[in-house]
Amino acid sequence: MVDTSLKQYWVGFNLVRGIGPVRLHALLEYFGSIEMAWQAPYDALRNTGLPTKTIENMIQVRAEVDLERIMDRLEQCHVTVYTWEDEDYPRLLKEIDQPPPVLYVRGSVLPEDEWAVGVVGTRRMTAYGKQVTEQLAAHLAMNGVTLVSGLARGVDAVAHQTALHSKGRTIAVLGCGVDVIYPPENRKLADQIMEAGALISEYPLGTQPDSANFPPRNRIISGLSKAVVVVEAGDTSGALITATFAAEQGRDVFAVPGMIVAPQSKGTNRLIRDGARPLLDPNDVIEALHLDRVQEYKQARLMLPENEVEVAILSTLSQEPLHVDEIQVKSGITMDKLSAALVMMELKGMVRQVNSMTYSLVQEIQADYEVETNG
Hints:
Helices cover about 50% and strands about 15% of the residues.
């Protein structure tokens, strides 16, 4: 986990025009830390090979922006900031080429959201497109799959709404700041999404929607997903850009076939011609990605250590009860971290409290962990 005091520098770089994933990675390699990179003098920045204009932009931002005030504003808006160095940064997204260095999140991104499917399409959907979107989104949600889309009018909005109505989780990726809801008529929908998922953006607070922001937004939709389904798309639909990113990222691409004379099906029919899988039944996605076993996957994940603290506790405990003081001495974990971890591990069914302040491993966990660690 990134030191919270260092996150302000990640946010600062996110404000500098001309510094994206490639250049930020180069700066981190050169200076060794985000703080050193942010505080570097002009001559040192020149030595990294940054263009003069980008250096000037950076120096201007450093002079004009109060990072502490921005962090306070993020906290007031209940925005969580994830960076490359955070353990909670979405794993699938981190695997893509040039993932966003910073993500702004309103709501919650959970480990279970790793089982996600992107559903995208035209803003001018037909009755057929609406029907397919509803059937697909409901089927995914009822199978425990998180639905990812872009909060746009049309297919995106219907996909989000249906996932919510089906008591599922859904994530909306925005082409603006997470405090700027676009389109404005989807503000109520955005509030509901934050209760059962998250709004996500790589753009700083206050960023207004702009046509240049949406293609990069689309790569995040596909990056968060195991597969992308394009329901309806015209010849120039942004959904086709999402499909292209998905293919480049190694994700499965599905497209809903439609009438060859229908404008909204020209893009999807072309995708199928070019190799996308035709979606003939909502279960096609479930079967292709083995998502019928999502609940089993989630349960198995709960049983595995989530971080170094849990690994240390599992390595220390056995089926013989051990007092927390002994656990603390043997594991070397501070008591506050140990107490918090034991509570979570008990909820997850990994350890049990035998007596007051005395814990042991659950038998099944010990067997599974021994297999995992011994290969």
